[in-house]
């Protein structure tokens, strides 16, 4: 059981939402497809709100449904911005919605429960564009697709979606939305924790111990696997889409001169949080420019890949030193990057280097969370908060002007239950 922080309860009261529905249990599905766009993570979770306003979250089932090649091609075509029409976005929105809906049905079936028992689906959708003004560091707009009405119709279950936009509308970054899960669920009694996701893009939430009246901090650290996956796909002609266990990168040696060039090419690393980023900045075009420099320097493909790994590790480590105020005891890592032992080794190396002391890196399993399922769990929780009318953002993490109830509701056949 994890106690909801008093300040969060006050925020809920101030924003006229109710936390009085206690003693109830809700089955929800969380759906997520990240920047890597390698598949749909789907989790079925049971959330119980206790009389003392604690939340108990239990994972019932988790699966990853790989994107079909045609869907992945659609997603990356939208990323590329090349030869696109309004029709492309329109069709993709519905096609991806069907895929999300089928993933929801599959994870429900895998848990051995009936669809009628599931109250809601929380779907992040697929981010296509997240527009950040480089001059002001303000998010001007954001777009996630995967039509929730299609999901609701296909499954018969009410779907909550489009979580980011309410935060962006109040001058927030709309991310990282994982911070609400981290803040409510993952704080420790005595340790300062960094909860790090390494997906296509990396993001972190710095959590103070429960006994301190201190705000969390959250932001995107920069590239996670986005360059690693791109380059492995490139040099293997698509036979591999990621570096399994870091076996390819281990064969190379990071180049400090190229690494310095990469760092200096990216002003984002020095921007003060709150801040977010994505493929709009860390994309194939930038990776290709760096690769050409690597060729000119006589580096092998393995050397370049190892240097890309170090860029991810150093961007995380240096951001911790700069923005955690030096208060750090534990690093808890999730996402696809947590399954790359070479990346974790390099992350530990650079953390020890910049902090001047040993800092252990753990996966979420150490604290009872499935590393692969983490982000899907987040959107299941956000759907729950939306149906309860509770605040879903953490303003000090996203930069929003205040707490907001996040998500738009597409009613399913089960919507009469919500009316009750």
| Largest sheet entry | 8 strands, mixed
Q: Give the overall silhouette.
A: globular
Structural class, by secondary structure, is alpha/beta
Number of strands: 13
Q: Helical element count?
A: 14
- Content of β-strand: 15-25%
3D structure, described in words:
The chain is of the alpha/beta class. It contains 14 helices and 13 strands. It has helices spanning 6-14, 69-80, 86-111, 148-155, 164-169, 178-185, 226-235, 256-264, 284-296, 301-323, 341-355, 374-387, 395-398, 415-419, and strands at residues 2-3, 24-33, 39-49, 54-66, 120-133, 138-145, 158-161, 193-198, 201-207, 217-223, 330-334, 361-363, 408-410. Strands 1, 2, 3, 4, 5, 6, 7 and 13 form an eight-stranded mixed β-sheet that branches. It has a five-stranded mixed β-sheet with strand order 10-9-8-11-12, sandwiched between helices. β3 (39-49) and β4 form a beta hairpin. α2 (69-80) packs across α3. The longest helix is centred in the first third of the chain and has 26 residues, at 86-111. The model is unreliable at 1-22 (pLDDT under 50).
Strand and helix map with partners:
Blueprint: E1 2-3, H1 6-14, E2 24-33, E3 39-49, E4 54-66, H2 69-80, H3 86-111, E5 120-133, E6 138-145, H4 148-155, E7 158-161, H5 164-169, H6 178-185, E8 193-198, E9 201-207, E10 217-223, H7 226-235, H8 256-264, H9 284-296, H10 301-323, E11 330-334, H11 341-355, E12 361-363, H12 374-387, H13 395-398, E13 408-410, H14 415-419
Parallel strand pairs: 2-5, 5-7, 8-11, 11-12
Antiparallel strand pairs: 1-4, 2-3, 3-4, 5-6, 7-13, 8-9, 9-10
């Amino acid at each position: 059981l994890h106690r909801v922080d008093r300040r969060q309860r006050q925020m809920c009261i101030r924003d006229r939402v109710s936390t009085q529905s206690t003693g109830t249990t809700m089955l929800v599905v969380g759906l997520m497809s990240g920047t890597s766009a390698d598949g749909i993570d789907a989790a079925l979770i049971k959330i119980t709100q206790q009389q003392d306003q604690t939340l108990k979250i239990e994972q019932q089932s988790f699966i990853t449904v790989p994107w079909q090649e045609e869907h992945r091609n659609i997603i990356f075509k939208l990323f590329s911005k090349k030869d696109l029409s309004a029709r492309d976005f329109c069709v993709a929105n519905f096609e991806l919605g069907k895929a999300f809906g089928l993933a929801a049905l599959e994870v429900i079936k895998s848990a051995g429960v009936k669809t009628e028992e599931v109250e809601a689906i929380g779907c992040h959708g697929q981010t296509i564009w997240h527009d950040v003004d480089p001059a002001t560091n303000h998010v001007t707009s954001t777009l996630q697709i995967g039509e929730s009405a299609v999901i609701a119709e296909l499954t018969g279950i009410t779907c909550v979606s489009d979580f980011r936009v309410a935060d962006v509308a109040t001058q927030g970054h709309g991310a990282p939305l994982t911070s609400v899960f981290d803040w409510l669920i993952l704080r420790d009694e005595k340790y300062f924790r960094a909860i790090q996701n390494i997906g296509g893009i990396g993001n972190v939430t710095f959590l103070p111990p429960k006994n301190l009246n201190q705000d969390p901090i959250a932001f995107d650290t920069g590239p996670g696997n986005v360059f690693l996956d791109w380059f492995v796909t490139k040099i293997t002609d698509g036979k591999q889409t990621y570096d399994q266990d870091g076996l390819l990168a281990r064969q190379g040696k990071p180049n400090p001169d190229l690494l310095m060039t990469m760092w200096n090419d990216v002003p984002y690393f020095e921007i003060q949080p709150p801040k977010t980023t994505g493929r709009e900045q860390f994309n194939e075009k930038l990776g290709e420019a760096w690769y050409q420099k690597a060729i000119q320097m006589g580096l092998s493909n393995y050397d370049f890949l190892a240097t890309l790994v170090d860029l991810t590790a150093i961007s995380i480590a240096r951001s911790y030193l700069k923005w955690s105020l030096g208060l750090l005891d534990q690093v808890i890592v999730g996402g696809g990057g947590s399954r790359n032992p070479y990346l974790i080794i390099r992350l530990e190396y650079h953390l020890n280097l910049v902090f001047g002391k040993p800092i252990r890196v753990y996966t979420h399993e150490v604290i009872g969370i499935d590393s692969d399922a983490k982000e899907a769990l987040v959107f299941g929780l956000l759907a729950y908060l939306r149906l309860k009318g509770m605040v879903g953002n953490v303003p000090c993490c996203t930069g929003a002007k205040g707490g907001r109830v996040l998500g738009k509701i597409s009613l399913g056949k089960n919507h009469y239950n919500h009316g009750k």
